[in-house]
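<tokenise_the_fold>
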Amino acid sequence: MTLIKQFQSFLNTPPIWINKQFGIEQFNFPAVNLENFSPTPIPDNLRLGHQMESVCKQLLAHSSQFNVLVYNLPIREGKQTLGEIDFILKDATTKQVIHVELTYKFYIINPDITEPIHQLIGPNKSDAFFMKMEKIKNKQFALLHSEAGTAALSSLNIEASNLKHQTCFKAQLFKPYNLEALHLSPINKNCIVGYWLRLKEFTTDDFITCRFYIPNKKEWTLNPNVTVEWISYTDALLAIELQLAKQKSPLVWMKKNNMQFEKFFVVWW
């Protein structure tokens, strides 16, 4: 995997909503020209969320629209860390100072749940869109206006009361296998990149003749590409079953032919 692909994937991933929803304004990511961009390698042992923070930071620093004033600033009260500020940016044109919280998520859409904003859950059921969105609004934004937050910003000559709060919330969404009609509004349907299914659906004739690849976490953001080492259905089934036994839902790339690729989660639950 070339490093630049990770940066392109980040830029190409749409925001999970447009403009303002849920009382939170979406950050409008600037256009970034990657022609003269030389990315700094990102350590493989970083969690995917931290890798995305590094990707975002490098892209923002390369853009002409924003200056990065603060990146990953811990807010402490005595010896206790209350939280961390992802980014504080200054718009080069308007001079507006913006606090941006970054989130990059993979959610499956579970239509068994009535409300669209509650339908988005992590493939391992360990997180949910609604909980994350509430945390951004009620904890991460509020942190900057706490006593410790305003003191930390003051030491950097940043006035908390002048800040505009926004989130850069990008997501890849996976709809249920063989389900077309979805009512997602106000969630951005352009975030749908694939589907999800259970093992019993994977063990059908639809999949047996295809080739597969199980991407590592660092490759999750990418679109399937031809240059990987594809494996047979039998080998893929074994690899998937091993993951499911550990209560992990693997992401799978599938090659139907040299022109047709699909991306899906097989969930363990």
